[in-house]
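Work through this:
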Amino acid sequence: KSKSKEKDKKKEPASMFMINGDKDSKSKKKGSKTGLHFFQSMQKIPPSPEIEFDNLEDFVMDPAPQGVTVKCRVTRDQRGVDKSLYPIYYLHLDNDKKTFLLAGRKRKKSTTSNYLISIDATDLSRGGENFVGKLRSNLMGTKFTVFDNALNPERALPDMSNARQELAGIIYETNVLGMKGPRRMTVIIPGMNKDSERVPLRPRNECDGLLIRYQNRRMDNLIELHNKTPVWNEETASHVLNFNGRVTQASVKNFQIVHNKDLDYIVMQFGRIADDIFTLDYNYPMCAVQAFAIALSSFDGKIACE
């Protein structure tokens, strides 16, 4: 018996991991207007070097350096009565120092899911100076928008120079297989200019945001990404993706984000390694706040997203 078990284990490479079986279900044209400048330099990414920075807020808002995979770890703290309903999520670099990057928590008494993102693990207040962004869902919990920490357009200057930017739009599609199958995600982020900087998107109202632009196919200076479709594995009777050893447990929350023009370039990947620990890796043109917010949206408790 023990020999046959060993054989079965060998059938599935260690780098592949299942998508279904989640424990958690209970709880390149330069100058073009498509925002796809980053596709001109997509190649196999080498291992991440030791990452250092002087200013934390700048680092989490700036796109990852080209050619560098920023490897991180998300931990979920849900100890205590309050935290079981409103866990705190932490993002650290996955290095020897475990460098802290971001913390996030859902706001209480909010009509829709609303997460605050902070560069201080102990200060998750909306008015605090460490607030760097937020993630807000629609009523159904199927669509999310990520904002920076600037002002609501209604309170901003007429020239919109101090108005908030939209950093990402996230759409979850209903899965015909229900909770047992992999999710389908679409992620819309602002495009990059020729200097590899994010093109600012400051909508004047809700009719001009990322999600509405995507809905109306107004894709100038926007990048459309999707989760990579997992492959059905007959031997393990599960959907699998190759995480190159970065994911070790099956979960519907395991996903990889790619662009249709290059399915081998992983813009972001996220997956479980323990009950409350997940790896999160991201590449150019994504930044830490965008990647962390996308991960937070995957934790949201709405049935439509489970």
Remarks:
- Confidence is low (pLDDT under 50) at residues 1-14, 21-47.
- The helical segments are 2-11, 56-61, 81-85, 210-215, 288-299.
- The first helix runs from residue 2 to 11.
- Residues 112 and 233 are 37 Å apart (CA to CA).
